[in-house]
Every structure is written in C-alpha cells, then in structure tokens.
Design brief:
- By secondary structure, this protein is an alpha+beta fold.
- It is about 30% helix and about 10% strand.
- The chain has helices at about 30-45, 70-80, 80-85, 90-105, 110-120, 135-145, 220-225; strands spanning about 165, 185-190, 215-220, 235-240, 245.
- It has a 5-stranded antiparallel β-sheet.
- The longest helix is centred in the first third of the chain and has 15 residues, at about 30-45.
Length: about 250
C-alpha cells in the first residue's frame, strides 16, 4: 500500500551517514515569530472549548473562529509534496502549513499574501501589523501556562503488558501518527499508558480522533529492517495508538 515518503523514513536507504544535528532551537529570527504565531493560534483555538482547563474561549474577541492544534500543523506540513517536504527546513514547513490554513479558511487572500510578501521583500524593516488586545493576550498567555492535555478519562485497553501485537496496515492518508516502516511488524506491549487519549483531528480511515488507549510497543529491529538492521541486540520502542494495533494472530489485518 502506498505510504507518503515522509511517513516511511525509518530504515530508508540513502539516508544513512552522519547527521548535521542543529542544537539551536531557532536559527533565524523569523522562526521565533512563526513559533509565536502557532502558539497564539493554539491558544485561541475553538478546540479549547472542551479542554481540561476551563477556558471561556467563546468570550475571547478573536477573529480566529476555527480549530488549530498540533495535529493541524502536522497535517499542513505533511500534505506537502514529498520533494518540497525534504527541500524546506523545519520552520519553513510550519510556515507553509500555517499559510495554507489561513488561505483555506479565508483569513487571507492570495492577493493579500502576495502584496505583503512584495512589501517585506522590498523593505525588510517595514513595520509589522499591530492589533493589540489585552483579552486576546491574556488568553494566549494563560494557554501557554496551563496548556491542555489529550487525556480524556479512563480507558478500556484491548491489550495488556506482554501481549503480542501486529501493527495494522490502514489506508494511506495525508497525515498519520503511524511510522510507515512499522506497518505489518509484530512486537510486544511494554507499557499501557493510564487513561485514554484523543487526537485533536480526525485522520479518517487511518483511525485517529476519538479517545483511545496508547501503548509502548517493543520491536526487534531485525524483524523490522531484516538483514540491514545493526547487529547490536538492541530494541526499538514506539508509542502507538490502539487503532494501529491488532492481535499478533491477525497479522495483515486492515
């Protein structure tokens, strides 16, 4: 089954060799602003209506009328063409995902975006838009301090510690939390997280959305990558939602 390249990186040939590990959180100044925009959008998201902290989000005077979560950011980035995905740096993918969302929801028009791009290219020191609102600021600051949790109550897990499971092969979608290289692989449940956890965006036939149990599953790298696995006797661990798992005797189940 076809899986987008950016979901299938583990063990992919041609990606080995030394890594250029960038230790700085922000390499350029504009990246801080993109992070801030994303954080503000999350703090004003209508998904906070049922957050564990009780936010009166409908009383906040913001023009953001929809939902924006980590899931939306990931979806926007992963929806990119794979060649573009590998061409751009981390916060460039964030910028692409946020921009696509604002255009799609009508907060910006392509003409407005083109005009703003032209203006700042011609004058990088041009003043940024201003629109301070204490109520909006207070909500975003409170969200940054209190946040939210995907945990949504008790769970009735289908698997216990020690259970042998096989990773399902659900239909490929634009965004998933299932590493492509684990599809069809069998492992052992190492830990069952307490409670159930929702994903803030439905992934459709991929299975995420409603609260469910989450597990840490242990895999033998040789069973995942075969003869190309390093002969170190190590183990591979993955956190997986229950929807991605089936009993080991149902290997290959969709």
């Amino acid at each position: 089954m076809h899986v987008k390249l950016q979901h299938q990186l583990g063990g992919l040939e041609g990606l080995d060799g030394p890594l250029d590990f960038e230790k700085r959180v922000f390499v350029q100044e504009w990246e801080k602003r993109i992070f801030g925009i994303h954080a503000a959008m999350m703090g004003l998201s209508r998904s906070l209506r049922d957050a564990l902290p009780e936010y009166d989000i409908d009383a906040v005077p913001t023009a953001l009328a929809g939902t924006w979560t980590w899931a939306d950011l990931r979806s926007g980035a992963e929806a990119m063409n794979p060649f573009a995905y590998f061409q751009y740096r981390y916060y460039e993918k964030w910028l692409g995902g946020i921009t696509a969302y604002l255009l799609d929801k009508g907060y910006l028009t392509p003409e407005e975006l083109d005009a703003a791009t032209k203006r700042f290219r011609e004058d990088p020191a041009a003043p940024l838009p201003s629109g301070e609102n204490p109520a909006v600021d207070d909500q975003v600051v409170r969200y940054l301090r209190e946040g939210d949790s995907p945990r949504r109550g008790p769970a009735d897990p289908a698997f216990a510690v020690g259970a042998h499971v096989t990773v399902r092969n659900p239909p490929a979608v634009a965004h998933t939390r299932l590493p492509g290289y684990l599809r069809g692989c069998s492992g052992t449940v190492e830990r069952v997280f307490e409670g159930s956890y929702r994903y803030f965006r439905s992934t459709g036939p991929d299975g995420l959305g409603e609260p469910m149990a989450v597990y840490i599953v242990r895999f033998d790298p040789a069973h995942v990558w075969g003869t190309v696995a390093e002969p170190t006797g190590g183990r591979l661990y993955a956190e997986l939602y229950e929807t991605y798992l089936a009993p080991a005797d149902q290997e290959g189940q969709q």
